[in-house]
Amino acid sequence: MKKVLVLHGPNLNLLGTRQPEIYGHETLEDINNGLYERAALEGWDVSCRQSNHEGELIDWIQAARLDGTAAIIINPAAYTHTSVAILDALNAFEGRVIEVHLSNVYKRESFRHHSYVSLRADGVIAGLGSQGYRAALQAVMSQPG
Ligand code: DQA
After folding, report:
1. Whole-structure pTM over 0.85, yes or no?
2. Cβ-proximal residues to 145 (8 Å cutoff; 6+ apart), any chain
3. Active-site residue list
C-alpha cells in the first residue's frame, strides 16, 4: 500500500480554538479524519502526526526515508520561517514534498513571506484553509512520483 505522511508543526494542535478568524474552526482531528477517509477510498495509507518540537518532526522525516513513504505533506507552521534543520531533513527525503499553509502567508506579516521549506517543496498551497491539505493529498495520490 502506498504511504503518505502528513506532518503538522507547532501550535497546530490548537486548531479550532487558535485564532479561528485566521485558521478556521476545524480541529486537527477533523482535518486528519477527512484525510484518512479520502486516502482509504483510494487505497492509500496516510499517517498524520503533529509535534511542537522541531527534532521530533525531523525524526519523522528521517524515518520516512526508510519506510517506503512516497510523499510528505507538511505544514511546518512557524518552523517554515526559521528551520534550516527541517529543510535539510526534507532534502534527504527522496519522495514528493508538498508544503501546506492554512492561511495565505503572503497576506500576513513580512516574516511569514519567507519559507525555508519552499526551497525543497515540489508544490506549495497557502490560503485555502483545511481544503489545502485535501488538495495536497489529491495531488499526491494522482501523481505519486
Ligand atoms: C501557518 C502559517 C505560519 O506562519 C504560522 O506560524 C502557523 C501556521 C499556516 O498554516 O497558515 O503556525 O503555517
Report:
1. yes
2. 70, 95, 96
3. 23, 101
pLDDT at 143: 82
From the CB of 7, is ligand 1 less than 6 Å away?
no
Cell 513580512 -> residue: 110
Q: pLDDT per residue over 28-63, tens digit each?
A: 999 999 999 999 999 999 999 999 999 999 999 999
- CA–CA separation, 140 vs 142, rounded Å? 6
Q: In testing the pocket of ligand 1, which one of 109, 112, 116 has its CB within 8 Å of the most ligand atoms?
A: 112
Residue 26 neighbours by CB under 8 Å, 6+ apart: 15, 16, 129, 130
How far apart (Å, rounded) are the C-alpha atoms in residues 106 and 86?
21
Other beta carbons within 10 Å of 94: 10
- Cα–Cα separations (whole angstroms), residue 20 to 17, 25, 39, 120, 129: 6, 5, 26, 29, 11
DSSP state of 6: E
- How many other β-carbons are positioned within 10 Å of the β-carbon of residue 125? 20
125 is written with which cell numbers? 498551497
101 lines ligand 1 (CB under 6 A): yes
